[in-house]
Specification:
mainly alpha
């Protein structure tokens, strides 16, 4: 029961500070569930990110569902998901009630002007954190380069990019490397 309470508190914190969306909160999730508590190992965390990216819904919610399910089964997945959503839901409700009243407030505008660049920093930190775990060989850098070119340069849909790199990975790691005895 103590572990369940710790996990719930962690996902309440993650939900409370998930400004900027899923990518911005990835480093916070990693710090809580991988580094801080060791509930998930780094390789599983990268897999969570990949799966959360491919499934509908926010990354923080998908991650909390996966961690909760891994630790406690279906009930844990549901509970962790609710914990992640509770505070943002309440904040959105409060903001929606008062936003029209304060949307022209210069203090609010100034605060949001400071938060926006900070969100970019959080996203960059998450990218570096995931990259540190994901770049295990020169081949992983090649897959990164392929995906980057497909999405950024050639404007290929990210879903098509994930399917393409997944297929190439299956061929490369499943057939080519074993055929070469590697």
């Amino acid at each position: 029961m103590n572990l369940l309470l710790q996990v719930c508190i962690s996902f309440l914190k993650i939900g409370a500070f998930s400004f900027g969306g899923g990518y911005a909160v990835l480093s916070f999730i990693e710090r809580e569930v991988v580094i801080g508590h060791g509930w998930i190992d780094p390789a599983d965390f990268v897999n969570i990110v990949a799966i959360a990216e491919m499934t509908p819904g926010p990354i923080a919610v998908n991650s909390s569902t996966f961690v909760g399910y891994t630790l406690f089964g279906v009930g844990g997945g549901i509970l962790c998901t609710l914990c992640t959503l509770l505070i943002p839901f309440l904040l959105a409700l409060i903001v929606s009630i008062f936003f029209s009243k304060f949307k022209e407030n210069r203090h609010l505008k100034n605060a949001l002007s400071g938060i926006r660049p900070a969100v970019i920093g959080l996203i960059a930190a998450s990218c570096l954190s995931v990259a540190k775990i994901s770049f295990t060989s020169w081949t992983s850098l090649i897959f990164f380069g392929i995906a980057l070119l497909m999405v950024w340069k050639f404007k290929v849909n990210p879903i098509i990019t994930l399917i393409t790199c997944g297929g190439l990975g299956a061929v490369f790691y499943g057939f080519l490397l074993p055929a070469l005895g590697m």
